[in-house]
Design a protein that fits this description.
Order of helices and strands: EEEHEHEEHEHEHEEHEH
Strand content: 25-35%
Structural class: alpha/beta
Number of helices: 7
Number of domains: 1
CATH superfamily: Metal-dependent hydrolases
Shape: globular
Bound molecules: zinc ion
Largest sheet: 9 strands, mixed
Distance between the termini: 30 Å
Length: about 230
């Protein structure tokens, strides 16, 4: 069984209010994912595929047996939509699309559409029932347990496959949520196909410690602004 983290952010990710979001470079995300024994990672920066495309380039150089899936977390007018496998350079203005438009546009680009943290902040809540998703996050490491429990109940009710993800905003958080996929070939097409055919299994649920959350979302911003390299340094 191959192991993936389907939701991570690099320093190319931009927060819709204060700008800075992920605090690690694409290289740091890739290297950490490899060191934690993952077979692949989806780099899903807010509103841009830039971090994912850079991470894929880095992974091709350092480990041919590791797969980066360039992805994007679109901040729609109603909350986040996670699109796995968007292979073109793409930037979307925050909150410029409705959730339905985000789902439709990303599906047209061939992505697998996941509802991330449906009951957390920026989750889509009951909209998940109205739109067509391929899967939902049954575990997000940044979300309170009771909201993850509700997400799992929703997935069962809607008969949708579940993934577990870290939603890492710093490299140390990578692999806090791991999804197993039963695939023979390590390729983006095989990953997308396995999710669509409901061949996912949650194999790690490790909550990000609250200090980690505070660090990555608030205090780290100062550090980031003064110390971090530009996101396109590969
Ligand atoms: Zn996220």
């Amino acid at each position: 069984m191959k192991k993936f983290d389907f939701h991570t952010h690099t320093c190319c990710s931009k927060h819709w209010i204060w700008g800075v979001d992920g605090l690690s470079t694409p290289r740091e995300i890739v290297e950490t994912a490899i060191s934690r024994g993952l077979d692949g990672v989806a780099v899903s920066d807010h509103n841009t595929t830039r971090g994912g495309l850079l991470a894929a380039k880095i992974a091709r150089k350092i480990d041919k047996n590791f797969l980066v899936i360039p992805s994007i977390e679109v901040k729609s007018k109603s909350g986040d939509v996670l699109a796995i496998g968007v292979l073109e350079e793409l930037t979307i203005k925050s909150r410029s699309l409705t959730a339905a438009e985000a789902v439709e546009q990303m599906r047209e680009k061939g992505a697998v559409i996941i509802a991330p943290h449906p009951y957390g902040r920026e989750g889509l809540g009951s909209l998940v029932e109205k739109l067509r998703f391929d899967a939902l996050e049954g575990f997000n490491a940044h979300i309170l347990s009771r909201y993850n429990r509700k997400a799992k109940e929703l997935a069962k009710r809607l008969k949708l496959p579940m993934v577990a993800s870290s939603d890492a905003h710093i490299a140390e958080e990578v692999a806090n949520g791991i999804t197993g996929l039963d695939i023979n070939e390590l390729s983006i097409d095989a990953v997308k196909d396995a999710i669509r055919r409901e061949k996912t299994k949650i194999i790690q649920e490790k909550h990000t410690k609250s200090m980690g959350r505070i660090y990555s979302k608030k205090i780290g911003l100062l550090f980031h602004v003064t110390k971090r390299p530009p996101c396109d340094e590969i």
